[in-house]
């Protein structure tokens, strides 16, 4: 960037599947009945909160006043079948950030073990509950991203790239609800560094760039990297997690009124119990092969290959 040049923020990918998912949920809610209608209403509230949170983060990034390329809602799959839905991949001159956006209700405590505990108020009383660590989730996203980058390289080259990756790619968990209070006084130092509020995001990115000893990338390089992730690694996939609500609505109907079952119905994830759906690998050595994937993704990453006799 020249002495008097204006910082440039490029949004290489701004759209999100969440808004389409919300549209489908609201359409399904008009016909839903009973307990399923309550579940859909709850899911709509969660999705709306998530969209608001991601919009808040996108606003902060657009007004960062520094060179960066932003990719929102990036979906990648490795040759091994591992997948990751990355909320934001932010490319900056010295460091690339994988952001996990959380618009959580209630206050968050992180204890000395790194466990996340949420306190919420309901009916005049306070309740505590453990939640799945967003740091663990984000670390898995980083692992998949690294694996995708290392494909088709030898062991020696992969080891060098792993070392390079750890220097240039950092994960951050961003809590986007401005009312959420974080109590991390007992949290391990490494955990504290990775969990921030949305209003701290830009300053954290700038500080980590200032502290990095790596060479700066030009805006031209950042744009080229953004095009690579968008055109070579990102996979546009249909929204399949709406199927779990459709299945539950069918189960509430009398048997005589139900349509003929689809091939994926009746199969459930052995890890979390949610329905499985048939998917097809779109890249790597397994391209074109079908497999069962969990509708609980991205919280659950269970997959099962489909044998030829099952796929007839």
TrEMBL record:
Positions of the NERD domain: 49-168
Origin: domain of life: Bacteria
Short name of one Pfam family: NERD
InterPro entries for the chain: NERD, Topo_IA_Znf
Keywords: Coiled coil
Coiled coil: 11-42, 191-225
Designated name of the protein: NERD domain-containing protein
């Amino acid at each position: 960037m020249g002495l008097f040049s204006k910082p440039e923020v490029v949004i290489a990918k701004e759209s999100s599947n969440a808004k389409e998912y919300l549209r489908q949920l609201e359409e399904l809610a008009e016909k839903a009945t009973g307990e399923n209608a309550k579940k859909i209403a709850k899911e709509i509230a969660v999705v709306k909160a998530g969209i608001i949170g991601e919009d808040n983060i996108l606003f902060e990034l657009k007004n960062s006043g520094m060179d960066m390329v932003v990719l929102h809602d990036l979906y990648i799959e490795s040759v091994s079948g591992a997948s990751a839905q990355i909320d934001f991949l932010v490319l900056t001159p010295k460091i690339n950030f994988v952001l996990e956006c959380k618009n959580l209700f209630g206050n968050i405590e992180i204890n000395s073990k790194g466990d996340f505990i949420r306190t919420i108020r309901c009916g005049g009383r306070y309740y505590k509950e453990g939640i799945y660590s967003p740091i663990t989730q984000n670390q898995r996203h980083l692992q998949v991203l690294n694996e995708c980058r290392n494909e088709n390289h030898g062991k020696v080259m992969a080891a060098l790239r792993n070392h390079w990756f750890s220097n240039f790619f950092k994960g951050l968990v961003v809590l986007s609800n401005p009312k959420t209070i974080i109590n991390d006084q007992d949290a391990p130092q490494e955990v504290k560094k990775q969990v921030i509020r949305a209003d701290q995001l830009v300053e954290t990115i700038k500080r980590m760039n200032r502290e990095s000893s790596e060479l700066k990338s030009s805006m031209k390089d950042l744009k080229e990297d953004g095009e690579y992730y968008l055109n070579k690694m990102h996979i546009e996939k249909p929204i399949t997690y709406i199927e779990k609500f459709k299945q539950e609505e069918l189960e509430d109907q009398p048997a005589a009124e139900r349509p003929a079952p689809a091939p994926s119905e009746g199969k459930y994830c052995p890890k979390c119990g949610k329905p499985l759906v048939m998917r097809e690998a779109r890249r790597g050595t397994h391209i074109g092969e079908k497999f069962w994937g969990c509708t609980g993704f991205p919280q659950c990453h269970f997959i099962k290959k489909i044998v030829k006799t099952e796929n007839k």
